[in-house]
C-alpha cells in the first residue's frame, strides 16, 4: 500500500493539531493549505522538525497553492472563522459560506477524487454547500461533529459516575448546534445502561433524570463553554482528534460505526439533508447509514434538529449560495 496523501485546507488551530496527530500516527503525508502566506509553511516545518524526536517519518509540508493538493486521497477542511464568545455556530454562516465556496472550487479543480471531511461551522450547512459546489457523491463528502459531541457527552457521564471514559458509550445525533440529540436510552457503561447506574447512585428516578438532563444540556453547550473560556477561538484539540478518527477509518478501511454528518435519503425519516447519524466509515467514505428505531420523543427531537438545519440551508440559499 502506497502512503496516503492527506490535504488539510485551513492551517489554523485545528489544522495544526490535525497535522501533528496525522504525522505522529503516520497516517500519510500531509499537505497543509492556507491563504495566509508563509504560515502553513512555518507550522509544518516546525512539525517536521519534531519527527526525529517523536519518531515519525512522513512528509509534512505547507502551501498557499491549491495545485499542491493534487492527488490527495483525503482532505480535511477547517477553513473559516471560529466563534467568538456569545456567538452561535450559525452566526458564522455568511463569512464561512464565502470561504467554503472558494475551498470547494479549489478542491474540485485539483483533487476531484478525494474523500472529504469537513469541520468548518456551521457544519451541516458547510457540508451541504461543499457537496453542492463540487457535485462529488455524498459518500465522499461528510462532516465531523457527532464523534466530538458524543465524546463530550461520554466524558461528562464518566466524570459523574467516577469511572473510566473508555468504558462509556454514548451517542449524539442530529445537527451540530443547539438542537443536537443525545441518545440517552442507549448510553451505557460496557452495556450497562447509564440511567440505571444514576438511579442506583441517587436512589431516586427524579434526581437521576435531573442529573442526566444537566449532562445533556452541558453537552449541547459544550462548544460554547470552551469558546467562553478561550475568548479568542473555539475548541481545537478535540475536533482534530475526532476528524483523525474518521480519516483513520477511511485509510485502514476499518468500517467503524461513527456518528458523522451524512447525507440522508430517507433514513430516520429525513430526505435530502445532511444530519448527524451513525454510519459505517470505510475506504470509500460513508458506506452505509446505520438505522435503528427511535422512540417518539427521540424522533421528535431529530425532526426538530432537521428543521433547524433546513432553516439554515434556506438562509444560506437566500444569501445566494
Ligand atoms: N482558504 C483556506 N483557508 C482559509 C480561508 C480560505 N479561503 N479563509 C480562511 N482560512 C484559514 C485561516 O487563515 C485560518 O488559518 O482558516 C484557518 C482557520 O483557523 P482558525 O481561525 O484557527 O480556526 P479553527 O479553530 O481552526 O476552526 C476552524 O472549524 O470548528 C470549526 O467553528 C470552527 O469554522 C471554524 C473552523
Question: How would you explain this protein's 3D organization?
Answer:
This protein has 321 residues and is α/β, with parallel strands linked by helices. The protein folds into two domains: 5-145, Rossmann fold, CATH 3.40.50.720; 146-321, Lactate dehydrogenase/glycoside hydrolase, family 4, C-terminal (L-2-Hydroxyisocaproate Dehydrogenase, Chain A, domain 2). 45% of the residues lie in helices and 19% in strands. The chain has eleven helices and 14 strands. It has helices spanning 13-24, 39-48, 51-54, 93-110, 123-134, 146-161, 194-202, 205-220, 222-230, 237-251, 296-318, and strands at 5-9, 29-33, 60-63, 74-77, 115-118, 141-143, 168-169, 172-173, 181-182, 188-189, 192-193, 256-265, 271-282, 285-289. Strands 3-2-1-4-5-6 form a six-stranded parallel beta sheet. A hairpin with a 2-residue loop joins β10 (188-189) and β11. The longest helix has 23 residues, at 296-318. 47% of the residues are buried. The mean pLDDT is 96. The protein binds adenosine-5-diphosphoribose.
Which distinct ligands sit in these coordinates? adenosine-5-diphosphoribose
What distance lies between the first and last C-alpha atoms, to the nearest angstrom? Answer: 39 Å
Biggest sheet descriptor: 6 strands, parallel
Shape: globular
- Beta-strand level of the residues, as a percent range? 15-25%
* Number of separate domains: 2
Amino acid at each position: 500500500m502506497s502512503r496516503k496523501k492527506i490535504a488539510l485546507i485551513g492551517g489554523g488551530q485545528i489544522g495544526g493539531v490535525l497535522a501533528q496527530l496525522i504525522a505522529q500516527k503516520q497516517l500519510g503525508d500531509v499537505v497543509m493549505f492556507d491563504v495566509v502566506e508563509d504560515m502553513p509553511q512555518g507550522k509544518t516545518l516546525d512539525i517536521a522538525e519534531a519527527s526525529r524526536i517523536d519518531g515519525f517519518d512522513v512528509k509534512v509540508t505547507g502551501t498557499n497553492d491549491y495545485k499542491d493538493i493534487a492527488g490527495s486521497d483525503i482532505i480535511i477542511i477547517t477553513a473559516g472563522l471560529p466563534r467568538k464568545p456569545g456567538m452561535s455556530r450559525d452566526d458564522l454562516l455568511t463569512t464561512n459560506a464565502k470561504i467554503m465556496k472558494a475551498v470547494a472550487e479549489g478542491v474540485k479543480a485539483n483533487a476531484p477524487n478525494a474523500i472529504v471531511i469537513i469541520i468548518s461551522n456551521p457544519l451541516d450547512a458547510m457540508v451541504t454547500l461543499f457537496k453542492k459546489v463540487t457535485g462529488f457523491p455524498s459518500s465522499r463528502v461528510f462532516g465531523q461533529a457527532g464523534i466530538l459531541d458524543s465524546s463530550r457527552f461520554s466524558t461528562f457521564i464518566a466524570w459523574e459516575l467516577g469511572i473510566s471514559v473508555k468504558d462509556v458509550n454514548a451517542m449524539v445525533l442530529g445537527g451540530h448546534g443547539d438542537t443536537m440529540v443525545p441518545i440517552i436510552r442507549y448510553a451505557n457503561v460496557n452495556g450497562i445502561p447509564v440511567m440505571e447506574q444514576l438511579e442506583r447512585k441517587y436512589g431516586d428516578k427524579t434526581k437521576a433524570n435531573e442529573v442526566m438532563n444537566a449532562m445533556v444540556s452541558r453537552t449541547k453547550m459544550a462548544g460554547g463553554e470552551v469558546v467562553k473560556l478561550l475568548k479568542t477561538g473555539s475548541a481545537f484539540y478535540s475536533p482534530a482528534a475526532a476528524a483523525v478518527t474518521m480519516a483513520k477509518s477511511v485509510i485502514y478501511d476499518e468500517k467503524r460505526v461513527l456518528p458523522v454528518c451524512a447525507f440522508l435519503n430517507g433514513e430516520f425519516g429525513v430526505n435530502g439533508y445532511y444530519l448527524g447519524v451513525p454510519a459505517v466509515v470505510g475506504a470509500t467514505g460513508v458506506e452505509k447509514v446505520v438505522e435503528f428505531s427511535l422512540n417518539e420523543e427521540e424522533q421528535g427531537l431529530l425532526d426538530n434538529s432537521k428543521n433547524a438545519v433546513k432553516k439554515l440551508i434556506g438562509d444560506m440559499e437566500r444569501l445566494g449560495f
